[in-house]
Write a structure and sequence with these properties.
315 residues; alpha/beta; Glycerol-3-phosphate (1)-acyltransferase; 8-stranded mixed sheet; two-stranded antiparallel ribbon; 44% helix
Length: 315
């Protein structure tokens, strides 16, 4: 779901409203972005209804109290608007001011992993914030390489979003000292050749003791391989690429998630966890990685952006 407005061209949202909010003082910009989240939810009634249905289905397994589903669904769309607004702050972030925006927790886990000279595989989800933590860690002094879907040529996305993706990736590259490993996709499917090339490059970077990060909550229909693991009380399919790369490279796998301060959403806490125990079995290790994500989601269900896509993982 990349459409933001129902009656107004989305170019206005991406290249008018969001840049204008980004020009305001941080607290004011993010307070006004909350109302944009409400507008986006009303502009996408089908996606809002599906998110609400999935929240009802997940219920107690997701730590959701009865009667809180609609409130959480609205928080999801607010979080989406905050994520969009983050992009227009990237040009102004630097190594001197990044801690005005982010509190870092668990950096010692990453430092310890890198001291073992096997690289580090970081994984996150579309939770709280997706791209901003990558920029933040880079500005905090870590050479981070990001493995991501290339949204710039995806025909399933509207033209305004594709242009916005070009802008975002360009700004991220200027702030990162590492590489952007982009996987081409079209009509909702990853290119197998592009995926293989990006995975090979990620393997090479890990073998030189570098950091590679990626998202774990990629819809399984996009990728070449996925496996069922327990998630929110059900069997859900998640991509196996993270675990396969860990097994082949020997790199430790560490979860990292960014949580927004509900009273000041311009402030985020980026937490890095201890390495996920690896057994050598893909399904077992994938289940362990997903369980860390589930714990984060249970604490803050309104910060997961993909509730309206949960049915794509069921299986």
């Amino acid at each position: 779901m990349e459409k933001r407005y129902r009656y107004i061209p989305d170019w206005v949202y991406y290249f008018g409203v969001m840049p204008a909010l980004g020009a305001l003082p941080r607290h004011a910009g993010y307070r006004l972005a909350r109302s944009q989240g409400d507008r986006v939810s009303r502009s996408n009634p089908v996606h809002f209804a599906e998110a609400l249905r999935m929240l009802h289905m997940a219920g107690e397994a997701a730590g959701i109290a009865p009667g809180q589903e609609e409130k959480i669904a609205r928080e999801v769309f607010e979080t989406l608007a905050y994520e969009d607004l983050d992009t227009f702050y990237f040009p102004f972030w630097n190594s001197n001011n990044i801690r005005d925006y982010f509190e870092f927790q668990g950096l010692e886990h990453l430092n310890r992993a890198l001291s073992r000279q096997r690289g580090a595989l970081l994984y996150t989800a579309h939770f709280g914030s997706v791209c901003a933590p990558v920029v933040a860690l880079s500005l905090a002094g870590y050479k981070l390489n990001q493995l991501s879907r290339d949204s710039r040529g995806e025909e399933n996305f509207i033209a305004a979003y594709r242009e916005y993706a070009r802008l975002k990736i360009g700004w991220m590259r200027r702030r990162m000292s590492g590489e952007f490993l982009l996987i081409e996709s079209n009509r909702g499917v990853y290119s197998s050749a592009s995926s293989a090339a990006a995975s090979l490059r990620a393997y090479q970077l890990l073998r030189t003791n570098q950091i590679v990060s990626m998202a774990i909550d990629v819809p399984p229909a996009l990728v070449q391989a996925a496996a069922p693991v327990p998630f929110l009380g059900r069997a859900c399919r998640f991509p196996t690429g993270l675990i396969s790369l860990a097994h082949s490279s020997g790199a430790p796998v560490l979860p990292f998630f960014s949580r927004r301060d509900p009273s000041a959403p311009e402030r985020q806490t980026l937490s890095i966890g201890e390495p996920v125990p690896m057994t050598g079995d893909v399904c077992t290790d994938l289940a362990s990685a997903v369980s860390f994500f589930e714990q984060a989601l249970r604490r803050d269900p309104g910060q997961w952006l993909c509730w309206d896509s949960l049915s794509a993982f069921l299986g």
